[in-house]
Amino acid sequence: MTQQDRERIAAGLADGLSYAEIARRLDRPTSTITREIGRNGGPSGYRPQQAHQATAQRARRGTPAPPRATGSPGDRTEDELVEMAVRTGLPRMTARVHLDLLLSQDGRRTAAELTHRLKISPASVSVAVNSLVEQGFVRRERDPRRRRDIYVIDDNAWYNSIMISRRQTLETAQASMAAAETYGLDSPVGRRLAKAAAFLEQISLDMIESAERWRALLT
After folding, report:
1. How far apart are CA 212 and CA 170, in angstroms?
2. Do 135 and 94 form a contact (C-beta atoms < 8 A)?
3. Pairing of strands 139-143, 108-110
4. 176: buried, middle or exposed (CB in 10 Å: 19+, 13-18, 0-12)?
């Protein structure tokens, strides 16, 4: 891999591209990109110049790259799960925080623990967990003894997320209907918006019915 290739990888990471998309743009296997980033600092610590120098040194020594710690952000299995979440639209940093909480034994982490484990800034943790809380994936608890927040993911997280998504879908339906009435239900735009509103309203009703029916699976 050339220095230019590594510069393009760094640019792709900065733009929030998935490993698969970076690989496609470089015409390389995704596994090659995953391995390159994982052995050279991970997605948040990848530096093209240092990566190029380290690879050259390893080649001169004839020794393989040092093994990654089990459970680290660069672990291949975790990378694949993060990539899957990114493809659904979740920002990469948020996906990493979400995954770390999902894989924790008790589903609980403090901001300091997330910062240390993922090697990211406290500000990045704050942005990620706030997004996860808003989406219902995580809830915030207060530790009164140490005066710090604890972020928790439990069995109800998926149900809560569905309920929030359902509410947002219903709000979109209501806004679409209001806009349809503004443009006039007999106009082309009004009819189009009214159809969208009816569709989204029905979807929101189906979502809550299905979530209630299958909620027992979470317990």
Report:
1. 17
2. no
3. unpaired
4. buried
